[in-house]
Every structure is written in structure tokens, then in C-alpha cells.
């Protein structure tokens, strides 16, 4: 079970969190004309890297904040965690 | 039977407490502190089971977790426990155990015929013998394998025992209380660290209990007693025996199972049977020791062949002789220690040493005691079927290939020592890649992967001096990283006998003309020939060889067999062991009971139960409840001998005719507040929200980004910047997460906050033509007329002194209101409604009637919004704004979602007006069409229409819009029913929606 540092609450066990997928996905702006291809990429296409991955976790049984976690997908090492509005390196 | 093999003046069992137990129905005696194994051996019993494949007789091989043979079935307190290791289970008064894998009895086992049919059980027999003909599989092969396989029978009764889970945090977890565990725990504890020391056996001390050493001026056993006593007295230390750390998971989370009551006749009051500890440790020291390796020779599975260290422990800890004419077969000095112990207890052993001319302190001591030693000697084969009676021994050539001088000598046990294998399982589970150490012919952990270090013999340190020094230093070093106390204790001096190098020899060649089975894996019956066959058949990777032969795949995870298996593969392949590598170790290190894993989360505790504030009232009024997610909701209120069908019909009819009240507390409620709340809702819902006035409610649909409907519900504008959103019961949590996602990550510029208020409000839906009359009585000071409180209106009012909120919304399609009060007043509100409504013929209604009402109205719910439908499919396209953008809008223009014959919701009525259509039925054109019959869609919900008194269903079918009026068929292969039906509008009752606006 992972031990995730929530920037709002401190280190907590994984079972307080829900996984939220790739944190680098950017939603297209509202009312913007975009191609099927672009929309498809946003809705369905995700990279599944082996190694460093910036991902979202939702502290559902804690502060209810969405946070960004930089994690190695093969070793589960967590390098850094960020608040939702924090700029990532 | 008397304890003929019990020694008088040695051992740690309590001689003052005699204990009786039964084994296979026969009564035996032992002492408090005995295991089943030690007590049976004291009684001269060595035949305890039959092997897995060939049903060969099985005795005892080890003395602890590594035991591959003595797996028994235990009865305790009317409960049945399979897969019990006789070497670990302590005896208690009245214990009942029996053998497994044998029928009809351990002494006469019909399955032993497999032994003579061994040509049918070669390596990979699962994939060969039973493959042909395929028709034999279910009726003949599978039942045969099932009867022959497995270790005991699980109980099918509900387990009444209690199991607990515990979460613990510490600076340092130490797994094993041998010399390295004790020393490191002591050093770390004295340096102020919070330490947990776990020991899987009942007694602390590990090898110190059985070895002839001194630490400081005390014997090993005395020193361990002193240290453990001091550790127990320290407030920063938790010491646990009978506790096995079996799993090393991510981020230094380890799991330990503590057997609290297994050694007692009955679980004590207020104590669980077992407790599972989830331990998050800042640092871990793995001090799990090492396990002696067997030597491989003919019939080496005969009862009476066992590890030499086990024989020693049976003497020193339990005061039990494993035999009176022992043969010690060794390739290192450990066998000598066992021989010396035998000699000291008046038994004359013979040592066969594979080495040519070894010399060391221990060997000299053995010689001085007058023990007979044969150098360059091996055991060729054990003789005897149910117990060792003699052994063929031989001189072995210097190149270890040729045998000579074969002779038979009498013996009643053969104690083998093929040197030691560090228990690296936990380190391996942590992700630590191990490396092969040539010096000890075994793997040891490499560089730490997580915050773990392995110490002592688990790390290949086989002298006590090395172990103690390493452990004291590591305990200090690791604890000081955390505490920075710099409090270093002095390391005691160690006195031990020096030993000489071990021999790399491990497998005795077969003499000419003999084909003895030489076993590698004792629990899964894998012999040398099986591995040879697998390699001949082309299996190369050790992982494949393992799975094909099942080497190391039994419940003992190959603790005694893995390394010899690897040796054999590398010998045949002319490789060295590190090239072959070893298979992956996975948790659990030892079997864990399902009860401990599940803990208290059984039965009604398997999930939380949420109850509305009116729950007690429902109970008192004969409500029959149904699980709605984790909520308990009244399904119907039973009157007399009513069935569900009758009751729900009565309740629904009463709503249509008079007035009903339904507990809707479970609906999800979310407060949406802030200056940008309207803009936010406008983006979340498919319809327009910017112009909703204060005091008005609106029905809304929200989508996922892929265009699929996520949820629906009404949201009311309470004040300028405050909205009250409702969600379905099932989606409440998901919708909140969804809203938070967009507010925190996508549109953080919106000044809006959301919070769940589900628990804060109790809700009652009042529906039916009499509902306004009821409201006028409930709120005499509030104008609830159609003008003052129109459909989709909202008012705050006073309910006999309690502040209440009235929403004029309807799920039933009738004139209806939803009244909310703060949860604590929920029951008060409910009782008032029932009391005041009496003269208006009010009746409470449950979820079944609620479903009936919404289905015949054509209102969609979870069975239509099932994660596959877009607004169009549920006839909600009128709520999709063309002007503004919202979540998921762009997906709706995908070609699949705009196809003209896209599925759409319709109503379905059976032609005979009497046959109910099973939910999930297919709608087809031709019931006799060739299979697979092309389906048009499926029936999502069925009810008995109380309006028309005939069955009615909703279905989502292809081109539904144009199917209305068609005669089709509903097919339910599951119920074996084909029903002729007519497709009608989904709005079966009051299609113009007059009633809700009345
Ligand atoms: Zn948090």
C-alpha cells in the first residue's frame, strides 16, 4: 500500500485516496472549435509510461483536495507531490 | 501410549502440565509448550500423512515454518482448520487433529496406488495425462484430481471466531528474534527508537535456544532471556511472539499475522483468534534467519529423514528424541552439533561426512566424545516404507561421481544437513534483487530497495560473532538516523566454536541399476527425474521449470527445495546457479488464514450501513428493507400476509388515488455556493442555468466528457449564490468528486465551493392527488396553492415550529412535494406527516412502489442511465442546449452518437396483458431466427402498471422512435420465455404531464 504525502494533510495511506489518472491532460477550452482528432486525444488517449508519471490522486477520505503525484509506475517510488494549483517541475 | 522418546533432563516444555490430545482419533499425551510434532515424536509417531501426488508416507521434516510434510487438519471448538503445520501448532487440552491426503486411513491409503502408477504422473502430468479425451474431463479426471488433491478441507460453516485488524506505525520493525533480531532491537531501543520485534515462534531467541555459545558471561539462551525481558519493559518497544511478518509491500508497509488464541482450547473473552497487523515502518531490519538445506539421496522422503537442526531443536527445546539409532548425514559442521547433542543425551549417532578430511573445534569435540565418524561417506538410499529402518551407505569418490563399499546399516532416523539457506523472502518481496554468494552457495540480499536491511544469517552471516556485531551496529545506525540520540550501547563479547568450510556436494548419484526416487520438493512430490524430464522437453527458464514441474509451488513455497532445484538445473545445463537465477518470492511467506485477511469485515460489517433518521419508524411499521448501495431503504411495508407484489401494488395505487409518503433521505445532496455558482452549473449540466430565478428548481442532466449520461437530478436556487443540488442515491459520491475535479483542476478561476449535505437533511416525498391538501395541514401559515408554489417551485416554511424546505418536484409523476428538515427532526417530520395525513388516506410507500410509479411514467433512473446511454437514448435530448458548451458536449457530435437509428427508450406491453417481461430480456423481430438472434435492444425495467392493471416495461431499442406501434418479441433465454409484445411510448401514464402541474 502506497504512502502518499498530501500537501494539505501530510503522509497518509493509499486507502484514503482515489486514483485520478494522468495529471498532464489538459481539457480543451470551452466553446473552442476543435477537430474530432483533438477531442478524441483528450477523452481517450493516454500515455502509459514505465517510469516517472505525473498523476492525479483525490484525497477523498481526507481533505477532498485533488493533488498531483509524481510516481514511478514500475517501482512505485513517489518523488514529489503538488497541490492542484501548484506548478509542476 | 507412553512418551518413550521423551528425555528427562532437557527441554523447555512445562513438565508440570500434562496435556492430552487426539491424533486420527487416538489419544496421546504431551506437555504444555509442545507442538503437535514434538508431542507425537515423543510418543514415537512418525507417520502423519500422505504425499500430494504419490501418496507416499509422510513424517516430520523440520521444526518450524519450513515444514513440508506434516500438514494436518485441526478441530477446535467445533471449528475446522485445514493446512495446519504440526511443527508450529502448539497442543492444548482436547485438541483434535487428523491427517490429510489419505483415504481411508494414514496407514492404509488407497491413493498410494499412484505410487505404483508413477508413469502416469511425470512432470507436467496436469498437461498430459488428463488431456485426452476431452469428454473425460468433467466426469472422470476433475473429480479424481479434486479428491486426490489439496491439503485438508475448509469448513463450510460460518466461522464464529473473531479476527481483528490493527494499524501500527514504528521507527523500526525487526522480523525475527534470533541473535541478530535481539541485538539490533536492543541497540535501537536503547537509542530511543520505537521498535516492534516480531517472532513467529512462541519462544524468543531463535538459534540461541539450541546452540552452544556464550554472549558476555551468559549462555545464549540466558542472554536472550535477559534481553527480551528488558525489551518488554521498555515503553518504546512492542514485542510479539507467535507473530509472522509474511508480506513486505510498497512504501515500507509490512503485514504480520499474530496467532493470539490458536494455542488455547478456546478463544478468550475479549480476545480475537488472530490479529492482522498493518505496520508502516520507517526502517525494517530483516532478521529472519536461515533454513537448513536437505541433501538429496534415494527415498529421502521416508518418515524419519529430517533436517539435523530440527533433530537438535526437538532435543533442546522439547526434550524429545527423533530416534534412538540416528544416522547423521552432513556436508558441513552443523551435523556435528546435532550428533554431539545426541551423544550428550545418551544416544550413539554415526556421522557420515561427505568431506574428505575436515577439521575444526566442533569436529574435534565430536571425536573426543567418541562419536563414530565416516569421512567421504554418503547415504545412498533410506530403507523402510512407513519409517526409516536402515540405510544403504557408501564411500564416495573424490570427484563425487562414484560410489563404492555399499553396505546396509541399521538406523531409525537420518538427520541431514546440506548447509544453510538464508531466508531472503521478505527482502525479495521488498524489491531487493538478490545475489548469489559462492561462499555459502545461496542467495543473499543485494542493495536495499526500500528502507530495509537484512542482518544475521538471513544475510549470510553464519558465525555468531559476525551476526552480533552487525546487528548491534545496524540497530544503532538505523535508529540514529531517526532519533539522532547518539546513544550507543557496548557490544558484548561472543564465545563460539569455530567451524570448517562446507562441502558443495548436495546430491548423491544413483548406484548402478537402481532407480530410487530422489525428492527435491517434498510437499509437491517433485523428484530429480521430473526436473530432468522438464529440461529434456525444452523448458529452460527457471520460472517455466517451476510451473511445469510445480517445484516450490506448494504451501511451503519451496523453503527447503528451491535451492537444490536450482542446483540441479544448473548442473544439467552446465551453468552456475546465478545464471539460472531464482524464481520470485511473493507474499505470504507462510499461509495466512482467510479469516485474518478478512478481519471483522464479515456479514453485516462487510460494508457500512447507512440508515435514515426515520429508520426506526420504518422498522416498527413492518418495512421490509433493501440494500441501496450502503443505505438500507424500505422496499415495501408489509400488511398481513402480503407479498412484495401485492404490497407494492397497493402502495403505488394509493399514491395515484390518494397520497403516499416515501423516505427520500438517501438522495445525494450537494450545496453549491459562490458568486460563480450559476456559471459552474451551466458548464456541468447539459441545459441552461444562468437564468434560473431564486426560489425555483430545475431538472438537469450531467454528462461525462465522453458524452455518456453521468447522473440526473433537480437543483434549486435557494438564494442568489446558493444552490441545492440533488443526485441519485448511487452516484452521490461520484458527482461530488466530479464537481471537485472541475473546480480544483480545470476551472480554478471559478469562485465556487461544493460540499456534501446528504447527511444534513432528512427528506420525505409526498405524492398523490391529496398531497396539496396534506401540505395545507402541515403548513397552515404558508400559501402552498398552485399559484404561490407552482411545479418546480421552492419555499421555506414552518413545520410545527421546525424550519422546513418544500420543493415541488415529482418522481412519481403525480402532484408531489419533497419536504426537507434537518436530520435530527426527520422522525418528527415523518410522524407529523403520517398523523396529519391519516384522514387523507396516506400510506407510506417503499422503493418497489416508487419504481412502479416512475417506470409507468417513463422517468429514467439507474437502469436506463447505465453508463452506456447518451441523453438521446433516454429521450432527454430536449435538455441538451445547442447554444452553450458544457462537459461532454463535443462528444455528442461523434458519428456513433448521431446515427439516425440510434437506440431510444420505448415502452413495452405484452400482447396478452398478463405476462410480466423479465428485466434484461432482448427485444427481437423474429423469435425463431437463427442464433445469434439479432437483438434490437433490451428491457431495462419492468413493473405492473397500477394505472392500467397490466405489465409494463421500459426498453432501450434501436431506432426506438420509429418502432412505436410495432409488434415484436421479448426473449429471455435465462428464464426461457418468449413473449409477444407491442412497442408503445415510454410515457405510458399522463404523457402530457398534467398531473404534476395540477
Ligand atoms: Zn489531504
Q: Give the termini distance of chain B in whole angstroms.
A: 91 Å
Q: How many structural domains can be distinguished in the coordinates of chain B?
A: 6
Mean residue pLDDT of chain A: 95
Domain count of chain A: 1
Name the beta content range of chain B: 25-35%
CATH fold field value of chain A: Folate-binding fold
User: What ligands are attached or bound here?
Assistant: zinc ion
- Quickly give the CATH architecture of the largest domain in chain B: 3-Layer(bba) Sandwich
List descriptors:
heterodimer; A: 89 residues; mainly beta; Folate-binding fold; 6 strands; 9% helix; globular; B: 998 residues; alpha+beta; Ubiquitin-like (UB roll); FAD/NAD(P)-binding domain; 6 domains; seven-stranded mixed β-sheet; six-stranded mixed β-sheet; 50 strands; 23% helix; 28% strand; binds zinc ion
Describe this structure in words.
The complex is a heterodimer of chains A (89) and B (998). Chain A is mainly beta. Chain A has one domain: Folate-binding superfamily (Folate-binding fold, 2-Layer Sandwich), CATH 3.30.2270.10. Helices cover 9% and strands 37% of the residues of chain A. Chain A is built from one helix and six strands, in the order βββαβββ. Chain A has one helix at 36-43, and strands at residues 3-6, 10-13, 18-22, 52-58, 66-72, 78-83. Chain A has a four-stranded antiparallel beta sheet with strand order 3-4-5-6, with no helix packed on it. In chain A, strands 1-2 form a two-stranded antiparallel sheet. In chain A, a hairpin with a 5-residue loop joins strand 5 and strand 6. Chain B is an alpha+beta fold and 998 residues long. Chain B folds into six domains: 14-125, Roll (Ubiquitin-like (UB roll)); 163-290 and 422-495, 3-Layer(bba) Sandwich (FAD/NAD(P)-binding domain), CATH 3.50.50; 294-418, FAD/NAD(P)-binding domain (3-Layer(bba) Sandwich); 515-603, Arc Repressor Mutant, subunit A (Orthogonal Bundle); 668-840, Gyrase A, domain 2 (2-Layer Sandwich); 900-998, Beta Barrel (Elongation Factor Tu (Ef-tu), domain 3). Chain B contains 25 helices and 50 strands. In chain B, the strands form 13 sheets. In chain B, strands 8, 9, 12, 13, 14, 15 and 28 form a seven-stranded mixed beta sheet that branches. In chain B, strands 41-42-43-40-34-44 form a six-stranded mixed beta sheet, with helices on both faces. In chain B, strands 45-48-47-46-49-50 form a six-stranded antiparallel β-barrel. In chain B, helix 5 (179-190) links the parallel strand 8 and strand 9 (195-198). In chain B, 51% of the residues are buried. Chains A and B meet through helix 1 of A and helix 20 of B. Bound molecules: zinc ion. Zinc ion (ZN) binds at residues 6, 8-9, 59, 62-63, 65 of chain A.
Amino acid at each position: 500500500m502506497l504512502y502518499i504525502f498530501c500537501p494539505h494533510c501530510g503522509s497518509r495511506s493509499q486507502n484514503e485516496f482515489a486514483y485520478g489518472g494522468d495529471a498532464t491532460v489538459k481539457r480543451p477550452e470551452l466553446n473552442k472549435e476543435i477537430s474530432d482528432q483533438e477531442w478524441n486525444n483528450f477523452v481517450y488517449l493516454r500515455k502509459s509510461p514505465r517510469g516517472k508519471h505525473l498523476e492525479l490522486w483525490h484525497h477523498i477520505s481526507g481533505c477532498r483536495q485533488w493533488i498531483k503525484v509524481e510516481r514511478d509506475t514500475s517501482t512505485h517510488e513517489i518523488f514529489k507531490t503538488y497541490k492542484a494549483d501548484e506548478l509542476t517541475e | 501410549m507412553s512418551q518413550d522418546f521423551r528425555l528427562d533432563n532437557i527441554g523447555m516444555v512445562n513438565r508440570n502440565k500434562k496435556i492430552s490430545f487426539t491424533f486420527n482419533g487416538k489419544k496421546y499425551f504431551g506437555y504444555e509448550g509442545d507442538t503437535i510434532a514434538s508431542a507425537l515424536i515423543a510418543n514415537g509417531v512418525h507417520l502423519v500423512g500422505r504425499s500430494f501426488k504419490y501418496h507416499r508416507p509422510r513424517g516430520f521434516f523440520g521444526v518450524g515454518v519450513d515444514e513440508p510434510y506434516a500438514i494436518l487438519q485441526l478441530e477446535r471448538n467445533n471449528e475446522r482448520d485445514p493446512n495446519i503445520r504440526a511443527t508450529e501448532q502448539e497442543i492444548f487440552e482436547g485438541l483434535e487433529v487428523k491427517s490429510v491426503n489419505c483415504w481411508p486411513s494414514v496407514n492404509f491409503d488407497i491413493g498410494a496406488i499412484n505410487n505404483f502408477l508413477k508413469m502416469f504422473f511425470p512432470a507436467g502430468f496436469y498437461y498430459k495425462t488428463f488431456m485426452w479425451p476431452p469428454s473425460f474431463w468433467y466426469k472422470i479426471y476433475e473429480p479424481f484430481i479434486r479428491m486426490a488433491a489439496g491439503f485438508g478441507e475448509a469448513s463450510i460453516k460460518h466461522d464464529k471466531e473473531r479476527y481483528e485488524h490493527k494499524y501500527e506505525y514504528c521507527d523500526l520493525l525487526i522480523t525475527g528474534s534470533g541473535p541478530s533480531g535481539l541485538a539490533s532491537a536492543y541497540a535501537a531501543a536503547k537509542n530511543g527508537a520505537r521498535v516492534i520485534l516480531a517472532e513467529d515462534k512462541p519462544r524468543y531467541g531463535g538459534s540461541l535456544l539450541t546452540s552452544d555459545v556464550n554472549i558476555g558471561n551468559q549462555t545464549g539462551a540466558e542472554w536472550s532471556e535477559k534481553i527480551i525481558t528488558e525489551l518488554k519493559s521498555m515503553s518504546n518497544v512492542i514485542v510479539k511472539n507467535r507473530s509472522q511478518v509474511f508480506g513486505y509491500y510498497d512504501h515500507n508497509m509490512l503485514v504480520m499475522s499474530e496467532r493470539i488464541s490458536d494455542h488455547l482450547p478456546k478463544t478468550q473473552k475479549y480476545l480475537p483468534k488472530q490479529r492482522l497487523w498493518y505496520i508502516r515502518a520507517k526502517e525494517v531490519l530483516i532478521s529472519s534467519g536461515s533454513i537448513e538445506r536437505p541433501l538429496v539421496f534415494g527415498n529421502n522422503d521416508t518418515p524419519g529423514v529430517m533436517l539435523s537442526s530440527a533433530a537438535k531443536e526437538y532435543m533442546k527445546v522439547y526434550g524429545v528424541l527423533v530416534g534412538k539409532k540416528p544416522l547423521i548425514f552432513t556436508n558441513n559442521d552443523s551435523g556435528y552439533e546435532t550428533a554431539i547433542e545426541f551423544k550428550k543425551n545418551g544416544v550413539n549417532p554415526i556421522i557420515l561426512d561427505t568431506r574428505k578430511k575436515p577439521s575444526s573445534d566442533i569436529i574435534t569435540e565430536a571425536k573426543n566424545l567418541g562419536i563414530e565418524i565416516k569421512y567421504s561417506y554418503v547415504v545412498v538410499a533410506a530403507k523402510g516404507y512407513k519409517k526409516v529402518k536402515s540405510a544403504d551407505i557408501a564411500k564416495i569418490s573424490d570427484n563425487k561421481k562414484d560410489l563404492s563399499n555399499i553396505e546396509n546399516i541399521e538406523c531409525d532416523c537420518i538427520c541431514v544437513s546440506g548447509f544453510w539457506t538464508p531466508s531472503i523472502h521478505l527482502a525479495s518481496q521488498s524489491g531487493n534483487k538478490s545475489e548469489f554468494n559462492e561462499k555459502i552457495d545461496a542467495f543473499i540480499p543485494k542493495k536495499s530497495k526500500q528502507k530495509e536491511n537484512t542482518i544475521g544469517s538471513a544475510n549470510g552471516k553464519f558465525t555468531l560473532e559476525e551476526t552480533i556485531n552487525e546487528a548491534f551496529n545496524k540497530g544503532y545506525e538505523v535508529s540514529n538516523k531517526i532519533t539522532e540520540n547518539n546513544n550507543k550501547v557496548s557490544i558484548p563479547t561472543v564465545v563460539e566454536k569455530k567451524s570448517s568450510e562446507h562441502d558443495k556436494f548436495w546430491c548423491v548419484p544413483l548406484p548402478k541399476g537402481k532407480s530410487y526416487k530422489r525428492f527435491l520438493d517434498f510437499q509437491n512430490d517433485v523428484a530429480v527425474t521430473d526436473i530432468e524430464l522438464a529440461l529434456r522437453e525444452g523448458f529452460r527458464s527457471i520460472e517455466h521449470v517451476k510451473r511445469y514441474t510445480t517445484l516450490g509451488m506448494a504451501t511451503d513455497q519451496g523453503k527447503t527445495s528451491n535451492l537444490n532445484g536450482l542446483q540441479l538445473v544448473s548442473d544439467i545445463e552446465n551453468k552456475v546457479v546465478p545464471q539460472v537465477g531464482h524464481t520470485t518470492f511473493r507474499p505470504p511467506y507462510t499461509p495466512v488464514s482467510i479469516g485474518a485477511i478478512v478481519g471483522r469485515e464479515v456479514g453485516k460489517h462487510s460494508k457500512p450501513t447507512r440508515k435514515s433518521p426515520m429508520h426506526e419508524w420504518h422498522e416498527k411499521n413492518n418495512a421490509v428493507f433493501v440494500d441501496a448501495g450502503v443505505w438500507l431503504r424500505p422496499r415495501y411495508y408489509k400488511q398481513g400476509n402480503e407479498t412484495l407484489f401485492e404490497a407494492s401494488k397497493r402502495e403505488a395505487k394509493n399514491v395515484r388515488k390518494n397520497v403516499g409518503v416515501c423516505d427520500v433521505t438517501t438522495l445525494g445532496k450537494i450545496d453549491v455556493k459562490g458568486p460563480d455558482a450559476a456559471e459552474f452549473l451551466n458548464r456541468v449540466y447539459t441545459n441552461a442555468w444562468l437564468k434560473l430565478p431564486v426560489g425555483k428548481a430545475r431538472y438537469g442532466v450531467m454528462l461525462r466528457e465522453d458524452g455518456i449520461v453521468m447522473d440526473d437530478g433537480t437543483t434549486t436556487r435557494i438564494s442568489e449564490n446558493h444552490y441545492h443540488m440533488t443526485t441519485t442515491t448511487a452516484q452521490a459520491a461520484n458527482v461530488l468528486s466530479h464537481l471537485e475535479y472541475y473546480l480544483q483542476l480545470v476551472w480554478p478561476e471559478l469562485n465556487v465551493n461544493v460540499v456534501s449535505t446528504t447527511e444534513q437533511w432528512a427528506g420525505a416525498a409526498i405524492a398523490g392527488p391529496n398531497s396539496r391538501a396534506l401540505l395545507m395541514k402541515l403548513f397552515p401559515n404558508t400559501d402552498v396553492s398552485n399559484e404561490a408554489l407552482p411545479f418546480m417551485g421552492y419555499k421555506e416554511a414552518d413545520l410545527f415550529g421546525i424550519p422546513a424546505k418544500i420543493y415541488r418536484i415529482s418522481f412519481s409523476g403525480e402532484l408531489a412535494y419533497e419536504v426537507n428538515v434537518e436530520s435530527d427532526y426527520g422522525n418528527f417530520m415523518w410522524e407529523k406527516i403520517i398523523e396529519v395525513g391519516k384522514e387523507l388516506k396516506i400510506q407510506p410507500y417503499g422503493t418497489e412502489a416508487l419504481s412502479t410509479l416512475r417506470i409507468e411514467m417513463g422517468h429514467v433512473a439507474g437502469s436506463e442511465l447505465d453508463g452506456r446511454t447518451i441523453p438521446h437514448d433516454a429521450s432527454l435530448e430536449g435538455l441538451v442546449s445547442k447554444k452553450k458548451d458544457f462537459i461532454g458536449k463535443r462528444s455528442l457530435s461523434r458519428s456513433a452518437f448521431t446515427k439516425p437509428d440510434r437506440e431510444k427508450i420505448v415502452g413495452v406491453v405484452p400482447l396478452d396483458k398478463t405476462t410480466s417481461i423479465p428485466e434484461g430480456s432482448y427485444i427481437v423481430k423474429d423469435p425463431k431466427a437463427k442464433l445469434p438472434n439479432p437483438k434490437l435492444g433490451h428491457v431495462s425495467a419492468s413493473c405492473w402498471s397500477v394505472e392500467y392493471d397490466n405489465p409494463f416495461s421500459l426498453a432501450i431499442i434501436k431506432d426506438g422512435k420509429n418502432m412505436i406501434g410495432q409488434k415484436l418479441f421479448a426473449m429471455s433465454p435465462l428464464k426461457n420465455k418468449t413473449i409477444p409484445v407491442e412497442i408503445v411510448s415510454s410515457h405510458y401514464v399522463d404523457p402530457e404531464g398534467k398531473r404534476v402541474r395540477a
